[in-house]
Amino acid sequence: MDIDARIERRRRQDGSPRLIRNYDSLSPVAHVDEPSDRGPVLERLLDHLDPVFEGGLPPNAYVHGPFGSGKSAIVTALFAHLGGLSRETRSIIHTSTRAVPPTVPEFVYVDLREVTSEFAFYHGVLDELVDEPVPDHGVGTAELRERLHALLGSSRTGAVVAVDHVDDPGGIDAAALADLFAGLPSTVSWLAVGRADPEETSLSRYTATSIPVERYRRRVLVDVLMARASAGLAQQALEHDLARRIAVWAEGNAHDGLTALFVAADRADREGRTRLTEADVTAAIEEIPRPSVSLGRVLSLPANKRLVLRHLVDLDPEDRGSVTATTEAISAEPDVDLSAGTVKRFLYEMAEIAVVERVRSDLSTGKGRPPSRLELRFPPTAFRRLYDLQR
């Protein structure tokens, strides 16, 4: 029983009824400590990781499944628990009269959405392994690699590194990832996490086994939505029928289902209601493009690109008729300290990774090829709120 959480849900800022009590609990990019109904997958992962409980290392593996199937939630939760076990075993003081339990390897999680270079990769791994902060400047890639060799090369147990979002557009490809791990000691094994089927990716050349993750069953997704609503909304704010409608629409995609709940709750809250309505859910579903891009990918973009997107979602329709008009409107904003050329380049780069989509504009100049305009591949309400909450 989490008493603090129960008290927090009943707090009032101004004495008036409030619908949203905790945005983090509703956020589609936030993971819970105990993912719902993922016991079989957790068991398969633990079967694979079983050698660590005897002080050994498992072979490299690939965890795969469709968008929204909860891969990241499962792996981050499991590695958080195993990392705690690793720290616990290091803190035990052994005596000559007690049996010495096997030492557990280190567990490291690296999100490749936030790691786009060799330096950033080694920096991220090292930062997870040491207590003191690893400097971002004044050290080179070779020095970071040497520190990792010194730290892990002499280790009896080594480390297991989870690398998430291995097949995101614009990220590190399979061959480059294998080269990065080739630069680490042999006392490191890795667990890649991505969407592509093993037969469709070259990751299978570098991994010994694959672990599939299926989409959420409808009943389970309803339970996920009701649990998130219970933690983040006022009591009885979400009716079971509305949660089921969202789950049916989401078709097993927890990201899209949670995004619909988040957008619907934000809409109801802005209109001063304390319960979600059918209209709120309808408006939320209509706002989410299909297919949509992960909000996690959008929010992991560099700060200047996120700022450009933040202004893009608020532009009037007449300012979004063409990429040129959009560029001019965004670069004119007082808090955008970027040239028009840079803003346009950012917009094109985000189109290349499908965060936005270039479509034929309705405008016509009467000659030459018609201009293109930008369509969002994510719901603006969710991005706007999550971006502002990070500020």
Automatic annotation (TrEMBL):
Record SUPFAM superfamilies: P-loop containing nucleoside triphosphate hydrolases
Chain ranges of the Orc1-like AAA ATPase domain: 38-186
Gene3D superfamilies linked: 1.10.8.60, P-loop containing nucleotide triphosphate hydrolases (3.40.50.300)
Listed InterPro entries: AAA_16 (IPR041664), P-loop_NTPase (IPR027417)
One of the Pfam families matching this protein, by short name: AAA_16
Lineage top rank: taxon: Archaea
Record's protein name: Cdc6/Cdc18 family protein
Source species: Saliphagus infecundisoli
